[in-house]
UniProtKB/TrEMBL annotation:
The lineage of its organism: Eukaryota, Viridiplantae, Streptophyta, Embryophyta, Tracheophyta. Residues 204-214 have a biased composition (Pro residues). The keyword Nucleotide-binding does not apply. It comes from Erythranthe guttata (Yellow monkey flower). It comes from the Eukaryota. One of its GO terms (cellular component) is membrane. Residues 48-164 form the DOMON domain. Its main location: membrane. PROSITE patterns: DOMON. Residues 1-24 form the signal peptide. This is DOMON domain-containing protein. It is found in: Membrane. Residues 194-221 are annotated as: Disordered. The keyword Transcription does not apply. Keywords: Electron transport, Membrane, Signal, Transport.
């Protein structure tokens, strides 16, 4: 009996060692190496094994500040993770992104990207003031730390997150098109308090476009519906099924 108990305890210990301490089952059990990294709120994001910790200070001067720690495993050890706010829409296009990856020396870095179009990803300033930013990588997990200056009066903002497998010459390559990748967006409630910490928000999506009425036979406008109404969304959906991105990211 004693031998059985000892074997069971050893098995439990071995399993515990296999679980990375950097990625816990919930955000509330995560800690950070830096003692100053304390946050008022956290949430288990619904996709990509990602977590967000944040503190929003609406009384900060001259502008309100949002301090965050975004935690997620890249799609590969040499991949990247991204967290962004989108001030104009849901989704990645238009978002003001922080993307972290390992540089040529193997050190974790985080850079800013204004993803304002479907073109290639190019490092650039973003519309929010970046007061601080840094990144850490260990145990297969990347962490982005940042403090942003936000416009006054905000309550809810659109957030987007993503992971990728490859960085080529310092440029993050396209991500996968699995359901988790395509559903990695939600609303961040800036004034949320700790009682809601750990509850995943439901992903938000743009409403489906209303189909355009079928043109009359012989109508000179027949065949133009692909570029009107929901045509771009339909085209994007077809390209996704074919594994092709119109984002370049």
């Amino acid at each position: 009996m004693a031998a059985t108990t000892t074997t069971l305890l050893l098995l439990i210990a071995a399993v515990a060692l296999l679980i990375s301490p950097a990625v816990s089952l919930t955000c509330t059990s995560q800690t950070f190496s830096r003692s100053a990294a304390k946050f008022a709120n956290c949430v288990d994001l619904p996709t990509l094994k990602a977590y967000l910790h944040w503190t929003y200070d609406p009384a900060a001067k001259p502008d309100p500040t949002l301090s965050v720690a975004f935690v997620a495993p890249p799609a590969s050890p040499d991949g990247w993770v991204a967290w962004a706010l989108n001030p104009t829409a849901t989704g990645m296009v238009g978002s003001q992104a922080l993307i972290a990856f390992k540089d040529a020396n193997g050190s974790a870095v985080v850079k800013t990207y204004n993803l304002s179009s479907y073109g290639p990803v190019v490092e650039s300033p973003i519309s929010y003031g970046v007061l601080r930013k840094s990144a850490e990588y260990s145990s297969g997990v990347m962490r982005i730390f940042a403090t942003l200056a936000l416009p006054a009066g905000g309550a809810d903002v659109n957030q987007v997150w993503q992971v990728g497998a490859t960085v080529t010459d310092g440029v993050p390559a396209k991500h996968a098109f699995a359901p988790d990748n395509l559903g990695s967006e939600s609303t961040l409630q800036l004034l949320s308090k700790s009682p809601t910490a750990g509850k995943a928000p439901a992903p938000t999506h743009a409403p489906a476009p209303t189909p355009a009425p079928a043109p009359a036979i012989g109508s000179p406008t027949g065949g133009s519906s692909l570029v009107k109404g929901g045509g771009l969304g339909l085209l994007h959906g077809v390209l996704v099924l074919l594994g092709v991105s119109i984002f370049g990211f």
